[in-house]
Amino acid sequence: MSIIADEKTRVVIIGGVPGVNAAKRMAEFCYLASLQCHVTAFVYPPDAGKTAEIPYGSQFLAVPIYKSVKEATDHHPETNTALIYIGANRAYAASMEALENPNIKFVSMITEGVPEKDAKLLIKNSKRLGKILNGPSSIGVFSAGKCRLGVIGGEYTNLKLSKLYRPGSFGVITKSGGLSNEIMWLVSQFADGVTTTIGVGGDAYPVTDFITYLDLFEKDPETKAVIIVGEMGGDLEDKAAEWYAAKPRRIKLIGVVSGYCQEKLPKGMKFGHAGAKEGLHGEGSARAKSDKLIKAGAIVPPTFGDLGPTIKQLYEDLKSAGQIKPIEDVPFSQLPDLPRKVEEVIGKGEVMVQPLFKTTISDDRGDEPLYCGYPASDLINKGYDISHVIGILWNKKLPTDKEAEVIKRIIMLSADHGPCVSGALGTIIAACAGIGLSQSVAAGLIMIGPRFGGAVTDASKWFHYGLVNYPNDIPGFLEYMKKNVGPVPGIGHRVKSLRNPDKRVAELKKCVKDLGLRSPHLDYALAVEAVTTAKKDTLILNVDGCIACVLTDMGFAADSLNGFFILARTIGMIGHWIDQNREGSRLIRMYNYLVNFATPARREVPERKK
Amino acid sequence: MGKVLEGPGMELFNKWGIYTPHHTVISTVDQLESLVHSNRWMRESKMVVKAHEALGSRMKLGLVKIDLDIDGVGKAAKEMLGRDVNGLIISQVIISEMIPHKEEYYLAVTSTREGAQILMAQFGGIEVESNWEKVKRISVEVGDKPSDESLEKLAKDAGFKGDMVEKMKKFASRLFECYDNEDGTYMEINPLTINPADGKLCALDAVILLDNDARFRHPDWNFSFASEFGRAYTEDEKAILEIDSRVKGSVKLIEIPGGEVALLPAGGGASVFYSDAVVNLGGTLANYAEYSGDPPAWAVEALTDKVCSLPGIKHIIVGGAIANFTDVKATFTGIIAAFRKAKSEGKLEGVKIWVRRGGPNEAVGLEFMRRLADEGFDIHVFDRYTPLTDIVKFALKGEGN
Questions:
Q1: Which of the ends of chain B has fewer CB neighbours closer than 10 A, N or C?
Q2: Start and end residues for every CATH 3.30.1490.20 domain found in chain B
Q3: ipTM value
């Protein structure tokens, strides 16, 4: 048996993330002990209507979240226990909501920093309602092999090491959370483990005192002895001693109280727990409490260090008296492990997982991104700039400074071409309709294609084809294009001509020549231009064609080249969106007179055909 | 709990209609002339000057001067301000109107598990301690208020007669309101007296402890709490208090000058057993400290930094039980970072470090600690199989090396 919590306990947890984390620990225990998960519901109004995902072995339980305890118990009437995992300012109200719920019989509160007055009101109200409220500041309750309420017991391996998957013969009551775990470990090493362990919390006024639990332990035949870990301050230990002395008790009692150091330290010093403080007139000292326990017949080891051997002695005595039968334990290696996460197992080289895809350019698994192996910060510190990053990520090699200069100029030249072109117009119409930045820019980017800004890749492809197949035969190349492709991509402009040259093209050509870069594709395209402009003077090498040749000469693959236009023009589109947004532009509409309504005149709608 | 100094304490009393002498808190004598100009009581009555700091035995230290005129006030304040009392620089003095009086009474409200007790006595001042059994008391259940009848009986039982019964009743009722509404944990007026000028009861002193945890519902608490152990907080203690107030979990530090064993244990419960073990084996504590509730590594690092800076230490006890949810690896990472820094600053010369811990990620955390030996630390690391406080024994008895 056990007290307070057992296999049938069903729990609602009041609180957000900390509550969910506790539920995960509770489910780990249930998995170890082959029990159904005890948590039926959460109460957390901000997430009401959703479910929380709780791993149970290799499965995931979806535990519903409600807005009130009543709603939770209406849906899960078997719920009989509530855990409070909510902030100190709301803990009182949450506790009262749980205490007043007819289904809830036991409440445990982990919340720390609850005002003393609230705790006292909870003492009064829980008594009135005939229910037990454990805490505040309680680590929880652990009934070995049956139920875990809260994170008490720590991580999974510790549950196995401390044999918490099956009941022993010792009850434990502590104020401290960390020590509750330590005692469970001691009892598993020096004796046969625990029945139930309860952390009552280290506040000045724990709502439930030691006696309440001692009474329950006394009535639990499986519990043969109880260990209480107390500290100076308050009178819970004194009351426990009085309880033990009041009449013959079935259970043996071991008590250990901290705070002897107080005799040598400044009066009024504050220790870790709010309640760990002697009274103004010296009452509640460790020595006074220990003396009372000894007088009451409890076993009190002289120091905490003597606790282990004391437990062992009592265990042996109880065994000799036939009160405790030794437990055959499952070997540690046969206890189930938690399913391991894929990352862990792969790390150890135990399984192979077929990757979904591979990447050859970028890795951010370390402390900073590596671009083709180069740390981003090192690139910055060594004076590289955005052109080099483009070269690395798009072409996997660091451009030379001359090449980087050309890349920079291409981006600068292509960044924007006014509000009227398809891309900018798309962005502006979206911006005027109140659409956000990323969607508006996307609306503009959608325009980039075969007719708008998307000729760079094709120009590269066909000039390269000409250079390879018709190196010294421009007319032959043009003949091929006319027959098989159509107009040469990269040749021709709507308004620019030989006499009215495109300044951007002139600039780029000059730059490549001045820097002395190798330019076979550019030279070939210029030879083509010489032939085409002889036929018609607008058939010049346009900016797309020029960019295509320059980048191809640098070694960029054809399929990446539209990227330069997309990247550059994104700068302009972002600018247009910001501009429209700042200027508070309104929804716009095409003017009727800009549309030729070549539709049939108004006419009668015929009856629907049967 | 939090102690409120006299100045803000009296303001709190005044808020609830508890009559106190006129008073003002100053941090420089430059303001004195203007204050006298503005406050008639400073011109018309004798005054008392006290150091406005969390210090015990102020009288013995000469930090209370009575029966002063304004020149005397200036002189006393000048003497006190800036004075170094065991490392604490006095930064404020409180000047209050001196109430000439004969009678001294005692009134207090204390906290009990059930609610509160109101304590009353006709013997005030220093006589109260020696007549403790004559102090009368009534209990008030939490959520209730003392009834008129019970207060009347209390006053009469305490020996008050005539119109004093009614006066004490009212005063006690107000003190209770103040205690109850302000989340008090202890309030004491000693002495309480009759101001002969107007025949009204007047609180000459205010000992006020409030519940720091209730701060969230008292936005008007515009004061910070003073230490409760007879001296002010040191700079390092204040720094840790400040960190403690804003992190998840907790970090705590109290310095004890002259000790040789520094504590850096985890857990509010275990830390006291470590303190006990040191004292029990005849060691001297250099501090009390603890961290718990899975605090961030940087907070533990800051705490470790302060612990390493304690003068004259020979051992550091990095103890702890088997944690429930405090990550051993993460918190140890913070401790190790501070150890390395301290060592590079030459602070850990001749200091032995003793580690015992369990909990989430214990294997990795302890391994990190063990490796510090390779860096020249005098470190001794133990796991859950070594009982909790044995490292203190190893440290003080030279075992387990």
A1: C
A2: 22-97
A3: 0.92
